[in-house]
Write a structure and sequence with these properties.
Elements (H helix, E strand, L loop, with lengths): L1 H4 L14 H6 L10 E5 L4 E4 L4 E3 L3 E3 L3 E3 L12 E2 L4 H13 L4 E5 L3 H12 L3 E5 L11 H13 L3 E3 L4 E6 L5 E5 L2 E5 L1 E4 L3 E3 L2 H6 L22 E3 L6 E2 L6 E2 L4 H15 L13 E5 L2 E7 L2 H6 L4 E9 L10 E9 L4 E9 L3 H13 L4 H4 L16 H10 L3
Parallel strand pairs: 4-15, 6-13, 7-8, 7-13, 8-9
Antiparallel strand pairs: 1-2, 2-3, 5-14, 10-11, 11-12, 16-17, 18-19, 19-22, 20-21, 21-22
Amino acid sequence: MPYYIGDVIKDEAKLTARTPAKFRESGIEVIINTKVEQVDPVGQVVRLDSGASLPYDLLALGTGTVPRMPGIPGEDMEGVFILKRLSDALRIKAYLKETACRKAIIIGAGFIAMEVCEAFVTRGIATEIIHRGKLPVNRWDPELGLMIFDELKKHDVAFTADAKPQSIERGSTYRLRLNTNHGPTEGDTILIAVGVKPDTTLAEAMGLAIGKSGAIAVNFSQQTSVENIYAAGDCCESFHRISKRWGNIPLGDIANKQGRVAGSNIGGKPKIFPGVVGAQSFRIFSLEAAATGLTESEARVYGFHPVGLITWGNASANAMPDAKKIGLKLIADAATARLIGAQAVGEAGVVSRINTLSAAMWSGLGIEEIGYIDLAYAPPFGGSWDIIHNAAQALLRKL
């Protein structure tokens, strides 16, 4: 949706994976613009806000997430947005055009904030980010986060760190004023992007078990604590293959896979969802950023003895002209010498390398094995000793 706001994707229809009509062509009944008011898991009945009741044999929940809100006066004013649904993207894009928006303020500095920031700047809108942390996207190591910060500065994005929003009111120079602990700042629109939480309202009312993460507890078949009720997507937990814990990682690719597993089991073809390693990525202007596995702080919480190291290199062979810089951090468990986390930032080749390291972690490879892993070599794509090899061998010397 940020790419629709930024006019990279111009046709909104391309953001709809399947229309109600397409579902009906497959013999699937679709009821839209309708709210589920209550589910009776004993009587196996779903009650709708229209007054209708739908009996069921098997039920699947895909309630997704709800945005976290700062809870400040004025957050419901005209011109203040969240970005959760396609309808939000449509309203934001229309508002930017109708108001000839000159400046935007983003509260938060996570993935969505970065992508919408790029969309605003691409549209010629001056942009300011208000963030509670010192650097954008908290998951990345400070040295790598500094690269993201520098990229924002390069594109004239104002970044206010250690900031706490206090209230929103009408502005004077611009339409809106955001008051913070650092003083006021103004813009024509404000996007609130401080994260999401699982929408478990319905699940809790039904008496379903909720996991420690705050998401719906499921098993490897996507069944909830009630045998004939399934859950999939951002509303439920996933098994993390590195931490060996159940947690909530609200990402679209995970939601798609869980939905397929739930559907297969509901259809009578047993399937399990084998879990995740937490691979994730985003782009901000010319930078790629990607991460997988655990951070050092997470690893300590889960009882590992993490050892991390950042290695600097290039996306292509060093002799190639215009070689693009990459910073790659690997994290290993000192007790087992196995890879438990990785993160990278650079102008090229970042996501492919993190995907490689995700597969290595998924398979349980050790740092020494990764130091000699067989990778496709050609000078435009990396050296004969790739940064993955160099990073693994450098980290091995620390273990």
